[in-house]
Amino acid sequence: CGYHFPGKGESLPGGVTRVYAPLFTNRTSEARLENRVSNDISYVFARNGNISLVEDKQQAEAILEGTVSDYRTRALSYDSDDDISEYRATMVAQVSLRSIADGRLLWQGSVSWSEDYLAADDKNLQNDNEKEAIEEISLRLSEEILTRMLDDF
Amino acid sequence: AELPKPSSLPIEVTANQLEADQQKRQAIFTGDVVAKQGDVTLYGDKMVVYQLDGQEQVDRLEVFGHVRVVQLDRTATAERAVYRQVAETLTLYGNAEVHQGQNRVAGDEIIVYLRENRSLVKSGDSGRVKAILFPQQKQEQQ
Amino acid sequence: ADWGKDSPLPVNLEADELSYDKETGRYRASGNVQLNQGELEVVSDLLWWNQLSGEIEAEGGVQLTSPDEKMTGSKVSYNLQQGTGSVADGWLFLQESNLHVRGKQINRLGENSYRVFDGTFTTCDGEVPSWKFGAEQVDVTLGGYAKAKHTVFYLKDIPSFYVPYMVYPVKTERESGLLIPRIGYSDKRGFQYNGSYYQVLGRNQDATLLFDYLSEMGIGKGLEYRYIFGKDNAGEMRGYHIDVDSVDGETVDEERYALEWQHDGTLPGDVRMVVDAVYVNDEEYFEDFGEVAEDYNKDEVESNFSLSKSWGKYSLVGDLEYTKDLESDNDSTLQRLPRISFDAARQRIGETPFYYRLETEYTNFRRDEGVTGERLMLLPTLSASLQLFNVIDISPKISYRDRYYWGTSDGYGDEHEGLVEFSTRVSTKLQRVYDQPIGSADKLKHSLEPEVIYYNIPELEQNHLPQFDTYDDIDKENRFEYALVQRLTARFDQDGGAASYRELLYLRLSQTYYLSADAVGEKDSFGSIRGQLTLLPTTWAKFEFDGTYDIDLGEWEETDVDLSLQDQNENSLRASYSYDRDEELEYVSFKLDLSILEPFFVSYEKRFDLVDDESLEDVIGVEYRQQCWSALLTYRENENDSSVILSFVMKGIGPVGGVSGSLGGI
Question: How many CB atoms are located within 10 Å of the residue C144 CB?
Fold first, then answer.
């Protein structure tokens, strides 16, 4: 019925396969986001058979650079005492894929993802809830970045 | 654009044909007319030299057709030019243009006051004076 | 614009008549003269131009225009080479900031600085501007500041007040507030007058002095200081102090102050320093001064100071994290003073399908009540990514979480525990492209990505470990988490060949299946189903749903629904619904913005609690917007306070500082 496994068909723009992905840059005031997102990018991009991550820039055809440009939390909902009961955390990443041979820009985009977490009387628990939300956002954001890059139909 | 003062130097004129008309006290040169005086050269298809009544002195020269005046790096072109000895002015008529290096001035009429080192560019009823000039370039003193 | 200073651009001169005087090297042009040089154009009836010095004298309807400024006047003298000169009875217009400057005399001092004598300046168009500043002398820098002496502020042509020395920021990028007061009344604060005075301290520093008179509470003083040093070290500091007479009618006589510092910059050695610190000396600071929701009911204030440095895939980050719980006094909130981590980001081992990663984190946990101590956690991880027939991806991951504790209080000794965490993810992807155009989309792609992740963490007795965060009591896991992600992406062909893509639908359905020995679910049981849906059918409408359904009890555990609609001319509706069974939460909020009654822009916001069926907050805003100024009247009614505030925005100046008292604006 026309559904097929993209397998070979789906590759990065410009048909590059060997990609070098240095650590993301972090422009937010939340520490360590660059490590988390870089790890998830590596985890997600490695899933695609047509992408081969290389650690040595000389052997790569393209370089994947990214910046975590924004991270913010805002109150999402309030209980009957008008106290905050849920927060929504949002992260934004600007990503670009550039061919190493001639520096050509193959793909560029800004992707954002949000996740909600519960407030808590115990602020340690609230802090843990936020950390968990950040972990989920980072993974979904990385998946969304890969999907957008493969959109070339 | 500026042309020299006609000092006492003689004017040499060469042309294909010369026709003198005594009673009108005119001399008409036609065909590749070239008039030289000092470092100034006047080219044109036809030149009429008018002499003052009763004197040998030239009153004015009139040059017609593809007029070109050259002096060092300066050239001026027009359809017609009149040199008036007494007033010491050289007037160019008919999309007159003066080029000097990259400077360029164009208008319907250019009057060069040779004694006062000044020149005036006029536009006709519809035309405009247009000039492209380069700052800071020293004008060679003539 | 830099007008012909270095390379002498040619001058195109056009006029009815042109004369040239070789003695003085001056051209005289008359009869609707037009002079062009590079991007500069001068138009006048009469004009002298000195070819050697570049001096221009122009008279009669003179107009100088260049890309970012326009000057007109009766008489102009100007030097093309230096780009300096002066205009009599001049009018100067700076496009970028829409600033109109008129003056008896306007001197252009350099590329973008002017001195105006006996002049006025405003961002209002029109002959009689709605507001303007008049001053004996004004120095204007394009895209910088206008510094004026002996300034009078006019509303229409009525002098309204006088300021001996004043700075008006012509800066276009940054909002800044100036002078115009913000007045209002609120039950909690009584009659309220907030003023702010903007002061430039230097090329890269400026400050705002804040003054609040709150009839019920007292007089607040504040200072906001902004700086940019070096290439990219920038920050803001705010301080506010108020002697509070009474709150909600009870006399309090307390001192309340708040300090705030935000900084982001790079230290020598490419070390990034970030500060995001807020300190309040009293938990009720925000409750008393916060105006907007999320301020007056702020539940915690977190401060963080961090230094980070990276080399390739390795990074070292040290930070101090201090969290102040504003809701309760029992301060068992953990402070991380400091936390130092060294991470090796996930890196491939040669050309093999294997990857390694290392996380190390030392934390010194401090708090007033509860166990404190130091912990070193090491987390090496080995993972792989294998493709089966290039169709199925298998990503196993195994890590060993090693934890050392020492220096602990409350009788916990030095401890060391480690445990293995294992997971394997199996996934594939199916997709189909529909080539026929549907709606405005030229092509559609529908993709399905099923994934199954098996998690296994062995049981480990950890009661002897001090409890700081989730890593000190790791539950055993033996479960499958499976999910199906569907995406519908549309391709839009634009003229010029470039195609743009938009994800119309994102749907993720996930569930967990618990095997034996899993702390959460009993043996062989299905957990709740979670559905996450995002619809973006058109660029002006978005719908989001995130819900977890409890299949045992057949009811929703938690749902969050968001809808947002907006058109091009500022009409928009945002609505959101939140429900949480265990938290007894059912909440709805919506915000409607309408511009159809232009120049009145109306907004109505409501927050409603469905558990007790009571309204939490109503906010009605009416903005009267003019070309160069606008007035904003806001009525706000909530449990904490009800208030009416009138504030002014002067275009090019931006909104006058919010209630600085509450640092609410942060």
Answer: 17
**Residue carrying structure tokens 């204030």:** C301
DSSP one-letter code for A23: P
Q: How many helices (H) and strands (E) does chain C have?
A: 1, 41
Average pLDDT estimate for C376-403: 94
Quick count: other Cβ atoms within 10 Å of Cβ A82?
19
What does the block give as tokens for C43?
């138009």
Residue B78, sorted as left (phi over 0), alpha (psi -120 to 50) or beta, turns out to be beta
A38 with C345: CB under 8 angstroms? yes
Give the amino acid at C442: D
CB contact under 8 A, A5 and C430: yes
Pairing of strands A18-20, A52-53: parallel
The neighbour count for residue C216, using CB atoms within 10 Å, is 18
Please tell me the distance from the alpha carbon of residue C621 to that of residue C642, in angstroms, as a whole number.
14
ipTM for the whole complex: 0.75
Chosen for mutation from C13, C18, C48, C52 (greatest number of chain B CBs closer than 10 Å) is C18
Contact C81 B135 (CB under 8 A): yes
Q: What does the alpha-carbon distance between residue C19 and residue C28 come to, in Å, rounded to a whole number? A: 5
DSSP C662: G
Q: How many CA atoms lie within 13 A of C421 on its CB side?
A: 14
- The pLDDT, as a whole number, for residue C494 is 83
Verify whether the Cβ–Cβ distance C19 to B121 is below 8 Å: yes
Please name which of C663, C606, C601, C657 lies closest in space to residue C633, comparing C-alpha atoms: C601
Q: Where is average pLDDT lowest: C103-107, C387-391, C482-486, C551-555? A: C387-391
Q: How far apart are CA C68 and CA A21, in angstroms?
A: 42
Query: Which among C317, C348, C638 has CB closest to A82?
Result: C638
Give the pLDDT of residue C96: 75
Q: Parallel, antiparallel, or unpaired: how do β-strands A25-26 and A62-78 relate?
A: parallel
Are C132 and C147 within 8 A, CB to CB?
no
- Give mean pLDDT, residues A7-18: 81
What single string gives the DSSP state of each residue in C265-308?
Answer: EEETTTEEEEEEEEEESSTTHHHHH--STTTTT--EEEEEEEEE
Which residues make Cβ contacts (< 8 Å) with residue C583, sequence separation at least 6?
A79, A85, A118
Structural tokens at position C240: 């506010």
CA angle A128, A132, A135 (to 5 degrees): 140
Distance from CA of C294 to the nearest CA of A (A): 6
Q: Which of B111, B118, B138, B140 to mutate to test the interface with C (most CBs of C within 10 A)?
A: B118
Which pLDDT score, from 0 to 100, does residue C654 have? 39
Three-state SS at A15: helix
pTM of the model: 0.79
Residue contact A76–C578, C-beta within 8 A: yes
Please give the residue of chain A at the shortest CA–CA distance from C609.
A80
Q: A26 pLDDT band (50/70/90 cuts)?
A: very high
β-bridge pairing C182-186 and C642-650:
antiparallel
pLDDT digits (tens, 9 = 90+) for A84-123: 999 999 999 999 999 999 999 999 999 999 999 999 999 9
Give the 3-state secondary structure of residue C180.
coil
Bond prior to B135 in cis (omega within 30° of 0): no
What average pLDDT does range A15-35 have in this prediction? Answer: 94
Q: Which residues of C touch B130 (CB under 8 A)?
A: 12-14
- Cβ-based contacts of B119 with chain C (< 8 Å): 19-20, 22
